UniProtKB/TrEMBL annotation:
Organism: Nocardioides taihuensis
Transmembrane spans: 12-30, 63-86, 98-131, 228-257, 284-309, 321-354
UniProt KW keywords: Membrane, Transmembrane, Transmembrane helix
Region (Disordered): 145-222
Biased composition annotated in UniProt, kind: Pro residues: 148-176
Name of the protein in question: DUF4064 domain-containing protein
Length: 371
């Protein structure tokens, strides 16, 4: 019976994201290692080691290149293992899930030498595999079914008529077994049967129906959070954390070693100073961009929390934010191909928020939610 359990969408999505991101990590590592001995890379490392915080590492250029090469190869090895384990996760292998989680830890840190975004996706995918309903699927537990709804209010023809009106002049009913028929009011057609007279004409009193709760309870299955909502929130938090971290790191590098920024500008546009742009203006513009980007990322993370808590307007706001960020990254990817990855993540989040089950979940009356 457990072999026929349907695989949750969360498991399928997390496994394929882990496989795809791992393959991209391997390709990025090859490109990074191939460019380690170029003159441009050596100059960048020399400038980094000549100023804080690189000067405190106690490394020379060759030693730094060796460290980067080792970390890149560790990332490539872990990514290869993660890609293989991702396929076994689709087959409901609990050992593969555990191994993928273990491999994702060194991959997350070693992957920083190739950007860090792809390795963060693998780590986030491994985390999703330990949440419900993924955990139940790996444990061989069938998804919880909705409880049998309790019966609603009785039909009009099954309702018993209220007891007859008793005035102070109405004589008390005769004692049982006396053979005297109670002179109570007759039953009139169309008004049901009096409560003191059974429907079948027997002398046994009619059984009173048990109290029925109204309205009927909402089935548990209707309030379960859709997997698309879980995946969209996890993607939002991962992207927001990574983007904010990279932007703060950029601000720290500009503050500690501004020459790295200006040397990169000289390579891309040697005449930028002749166009009336000052070094101070470039630094201020960089800090402004970092602040706005971090504010955007923090807002998206808060919207993800509200979407998780089923706030209707937050879904629309997060959908607009993800779609806008994806388009901005696609346009910026013309100058940097690395931005294609966050663009895909943002557009994937937007596509998850417009799924049919997500819209239906937000449209239903709000009740107690279950993870």
């Amino acid at each position: 019976m457990t072999d026929t359990l349907p695989r949750p969408r969360q498991v399928t999505m997390a496994a394929w994201i882990a496989v795809g991101a791992s393959v991209l990590v391997v390709l990025t590592v090859f490109d990074t290692v191939a460019g380690l001995h170029t003159l441009e890379t050596r100059r960048t490392i020399e400038q980094f080691l000549a100023e804080p915080p690189g000067v405190d590492l106690g490394l020379d250029v060759d030693g730094a290149i060796a460290v980067v090469r080792v970390l890149a190869m560790v990332a490539a090895g872990c990514a290869t293992a993660a890609a293989v384990l991702g396929f076994h996760v689709l087959k409901r292998s609990k050992g593969a899930r555990l191994a993928l989680t273990i491999v994702a830890v060194p991959l997350f840190f070693a992957g920083m030498v190739v950007g860090g975004f792809l390795s963060s996706l693998v780590a986030a995918s491994a985390l999703v595999l330990w949440l419900e309903p993924s955990r139940d699927w790996f444990n061989g537990v069938r998804a919880r079914t909705a409880p049998v709804p309790e019966p609603g209010p009785p039909a009009p023809e099954q309702r018993q008529a209220p007891p007859p009106y008793l005035s102070p002049h109405t004589p008390p009913p005769p004692p049982a077994g006396s053979g005297v028929v109670s002179p109570g009011p007759r039953a009139h057609e169309g008004f049901g049967t009096p409560q003191h007279r059974p429907v079948d004409g027997s002398t046994a009193p009619a059984a009173a129906s048990a109290p029925v709760p109204w309205p009927p309870p909402v089935p548990r299955e209707q309030e379960r959070r859709p997997g698309a909502v879980v995946a969209a929130c996890v993607l939002t938090w991962t992207l927001a954390t990574l983007v904010a971290g990279l932007m703060l790191l950029t601000a720290a590098v500009v503050a500690a070693a501004p020459d790295l920024l200006f040397n990169e500008l000289d390579k891309q546009n040697p005449d930028w100073q002749a166009q009336g742009v000052s070094r101070a203006g470039v630094e201020v513009a960089t800090y402004v961009v970092v602040a706005l980007t971090c504010l955007w990322a923090a807002t998206a993370a808060v919207l993800g929390v509200l979407v998780w808590r089923r706030v209707v307007w937050a879904r629309t706001a997060l959908l607009a934010s993800a779609a806008t960020a994806g388009l901005v990254c696609l346009v910026a990817a013309i100058g940097s191909f690395v931005l294609v990855v966050p663009a895909v993540g943002c557009l994937l989040t937007a596509s998850l928020l417009i799924r049919t089950e997500v819209r239906a979940w937000f449209a239903r009356p709000r009740g107690p939610m279950h993870p």
